[in-house]
Specification:
single chain
Length: 226
């Protein structure tokens, strides 16, 4: 059912599986299969910017585990590290090339939804945002009267009392996109415990939440689609 959405997110699973295979079975694979799995890994990284973070995180965890628990196994994962590094470099160059091509063709850079800001606002809440906005200037601070708000409403709602990105003009959307990593660096350190608890809760819920609620639309969802 999830694959039917045809979203790039589905390739996260392929990335995780490719990393696991390369980490545990490199010496048992022939060159053709090594190349195929490495190509799948690269395609997954290129498909979604969060997959680059996922790849770097998984590789770092594997390297740390080997260095701490099984240092003699380093030779088994050195190719994984090399391939992961190559994929990361290609992904960064690809992203820069994409932005350059869009700017060259359309006269302005692409606008990406500020997923990081939306998640942090939803996770850390209005008090944390207010604390950051009291000492720094961010575009997202202009919308504090709509907080607290969940990340879905922040990004996509067209309700002027809840939505932010979905109802903003193009210039504001561009600024929200541009500032999100600066905003993250400002809001996470003073709220690190809350942030760590939030991402841990998300991770646990992803592990145990299995269902097909998308098949049963609520009245609000039906109204939205209409």
């Amino acid at each position: 059912f999830f694959v039917s959405f045809l979203m790039p997110d589905v390739l996260a699973g392929f990335l995780i599986l490719a990393v696991a295979i390369l980490a545990t079975s490199w010496e048992r694979l022939d060159p053709l299969n090594r190349g195929i799995i490495s190509a799948i890994l690269l395609f997954a990284v290129l498909s979604h910017v969060t997959h680059l973070v996922l790849l770097l995180g998984l590789t770092a965890l594997i390297v740390a585990y080997v260095l701490i628990a099984h240092r003699s196994h380093w030779t088994h994962i050195r190719w994984l590290v090399s391939i992961a590094a190559a994929c990361a470099v290609i992904a960064i160059v690809w992203e820069a090339g994409f932005s350059f091509a869009v700017t060259r063709a359309l006269g302005s850079p692409s606008v990406r939804p500020p997923f990081v800001t939306a998640k942090l606002v939803s996770m850390l809440g209005e008090p944390a945002v207010a604390q950051v906005c009291s000492s720094r200037t961010f575009v997202v601070c202009q919308f504090q009267d709509r907080f607290p708000v969940d990340d879905e409403a922040f990004l996509w709602s067209e309700d002027e009392n809840k939505g932010v990105f979905g109802i903003a003009d193009v210039q504001t959307k561009r600024l929200l996109d541009k500032e999100q990593f600066r905003f993250a660096l400002a809001i996470i350190p003073p709220n690190f415990g809350h942030f760590l608890a939030g991402i841990s809760d998300d991770a646990v819920r992803q592990l145990i939440h299995i269902g097909l609620s998308e098949y049963s639309y609520s009245p609000a969802a039906l109204t939205f689609f209409k």
